Amino acid sequence: MPLPTQELWDEIYTRFILNVPQGELETTERMMFVVEEAFWAYEDFYREADPSLNKLTLREFTKLVFEKCPGMQVYQHTSDEIFYSFQAFKHSVPVMGAIMLDPTLSYVLLLRGFKSNASWSFPRGKISKDETDSACAIREVYEETGVDISGALVEEDCIEICTGEQRCKLYIIPDVPLTTAFAPQTRGEVGAYAWHELKDLPSNKEDFANYQYVSENGTRHRFFMLWPFLKRLKTYIKQRRKNIRAGKVEKRGEIRPPPVVDAPEVQGAAAQEGEGGSQGKKRRKKKKKNADAVQD
């Protein structure tokens, strides 16, 4: 497969680098976010328009940007150093998102990356410059599910953990209908959605290390960073159910789902993924009663 032509590199430079505010290029970390944005455009749009273009990793793409784009050659000989420093920096950027529960508080929504062997996790993403925690969570959930949780988010209803240098906060959003037609607003990031029954998910690191779902076609399904949240989530659910019985739950705003016309097809998760076993690392278990799944 051919590499991009110089004409294409000039277009990428003009579109993504030439006209960005000077402040966005004053550090290599900020510059690399610009390069990463160009990389996703290359993957999602340029290669889709011309399938003959070579598939590149971000590292390979970065090297070519520094080699081919005007004014970027100054970074050419330190490309790997800049790339790996950027990867380390990204692992320190705070992450925000949401734990979305059905009205019975029995099921939690998880989404899977675009590749079939990607992990399942909560909708979430990295915070942007000058963005508040809740604003980031609202934006990320909307981008990944098409659902607007701004009216249903309560600042105090959250679980926050720190892993290494990274802070992660997830807001708990109950009363999300199982029939919600989720629809990603970004390309190439979300491959499937599924409602997972909470009682089937391990709640400690040791159990997750020996937990994996293998579908009938041999695909291994994994979970990412669920166990640190599940124990506190189950405590929250227990207290919320107690408050519901006592009539002490305040009415919160409703979520705004995406238009049905834009939603992908909804399928039964067990039928879609198979019933597989429960050995290994992450993902459903047994015949888990995942209510619905959406596959792009």
Automatic annotation (TrEMBL):
Its main location: cytoplasm. The keyword RNA-binding applies. GO terms for biological process: deadenylation-dependent decapping of nuclear-transcribed mRNA; nuclear-transcribed mRNA catabolic process, nonsense-mediated decay. Gene3D superfamilies: Dcp2, box A domain, Nucleoside Triphosphate Pyrophosphohydrolase. GO terms for cellular component: cytoplasm. One of its GO terms (molecular function) is RNA binding. The keyword Chloroplast does not apply. Residues 91-219 form the Nudix hydrolase domain. Residues 280-289 have a biased composition (Basic residues). CDD domains: NUDIX_Dcp2p_Nudt20. Residues 248-296 are annotated as: Disordered. It is found in: Cytoplasm. PROSITE patterns: NUDIX (PS51462), NUDIX_BOX (PS00893). Its cofactor is Mn(2+). Belongs to the Nudix hydrolase family. DCP2 subfamily. This is Nudix hydrolase domain-containing protein. It comes from Tetraselmis chuii.
